[in-house]
Amino acid sequence: MLRLPLFRHPAGAGPVLRILAMLLLVLSLFMLIPLALLALEGDGQMWPFLWAFAVTFGTGVVFILLTWGVHIELRPRQMFILTTSSWVVMSAFSSLPMQFGAPRLSVADAVFESVSAITTTGATVLVGIEHLSDGLKLWRGLMQWVGGVGIIVMAIAVLPFLRVGGMRLFQTESSDWSDKVLPRAGTVAKAIGLVYVGFTIVSIVSYWLAGMLPLDAVVHGMTSVATGGFANYDASFGQYADQPVILWLSVLSMLTGALPFVLYIRMARERSGVLWKDQQVRGLLALLVVVIALLTLYRTVRGMEFFDALTQVAFNVVSVVTTTGYATDDYTAWGPLSAAAFFYLTFVGGCSGSTSGGMKVFRFQVGLIMLVNQLRYLVHANGVFVQRYNGRVLTDDQIRGVIAFSFFFFFTVAVLALGLSLMGLDFVTALSGAATAVANVGPGLGDIIGPAGNFAPLPDAAKWMLSIGMLMGRLEILTVLVLLTPTFWRK
Hints:
Blueprint: H1 14-41, H2 46-66, H3 76-94, H4 96-99, H5 107-118, H6 134-162, H7 181-209, H8 214-225, H9 244-258, H10 261-270, H11 274-277, H12 279-301, H13 306-321, H14 336-345, H15 361-379, E1 388-389, E2 392-393, H16 396-422, H17 427-438, H18 446-449, H19 460-474, H20 478-481, H21 486-489
Antiparallel strand pairs: 1-2
Helix pairs in contact: 1-2, 1-3, 1-6, 3-5, 3-6, 5-6, 5-19, 6-7, 6-8, 7-8, 7-9, 7-10, 9-13, 12-13, 16-17, 16-19, 17-19
């Protein structure tokens, strides 16, 4: 059997390619779902999906043959490579149906759309979405749904193991891999998968019973729980802006995806109120209540009826904070306070171990704890203050992780915004575009990429830069940056 010399290297690519092959085979099977729908409808757009399936499946088979007999035992260095390469490869192959003719986008546009989907960002370059084939609408939802469950597994199982971004704060029995990486990953993935599928089914059925068309219910059900934000209309969720029941169901679905999935599993096993006891859950809900109350009051004072204001504010605030990216209205036109508030909310994100992007609530909470303790030290220089989070003492390693991630998060946004400015974009578009890409939110601010626009008018170079930003944000930034250091590649 053919072997590549690289596979015999201690840090070789054999195990990585083997796992990538499995991911491609799974991805190709998902392509059969929209293909089958289009075949049943007799839609000619089935052929791009057929060709995409053939290329993806064939590549997976080739990788399997090239790595036949390779023992899958991943070291930390290989885990870093696999984490980044898997998202890049999945995004690239997911773009094939759109490149092959559904609806035949350019490479830059197709890759941007697929990266946005897989990372559950929700930014789009498509116009006339309601006129696309049912297969492509379904494929956009499936990409976000697959990306969402992958994000949860990565956040709970992979990142704590790699000591990335302070994620070891949430190392539990399910994420304490020690030297048994793959068996642990299988256990975690199975439990998460069952919960994820269950919530998705509940969301789909509730949308359908509330009056959504079947395909809309399926796609929006998947993208709500995945906190992805792809909708079947150019107006996003504005299509249902006059149906408050559907909007409130969406709020619940988005919140479900933004809470820690490992706590759902613990609740099912222990029958306890573990979810409410979690400090980051309480912090997220408290933030939402305060912001929604203030903006509802702001809109009511400006003349809007109370319940309508509450519904619109609650939906859009939850959408942005959970990094879903749906919109029912151009909230940047609500007034100066609303525009500023939504820009700040772009950075927050949901809880660790959820489908949400952003900085995550726990990092703001840990930062506040460190700030309070620093103020105490200024008053009591010789005092000894123990820093605790969720009832546990914060270690220096965890604090360093939070500080390092926070610095590189804003540094990445700043560099990306500068690059977008060099592409000729105005300041608001460049800054909000960089922020929404790295935070995986979706819409930015301004007339071009705001809630009422999309990313189609941007130059291709800007789309490639934003695609990199979305991937970096989804992978907690440090996972990607470590690959750029010479030290990582030394033996």
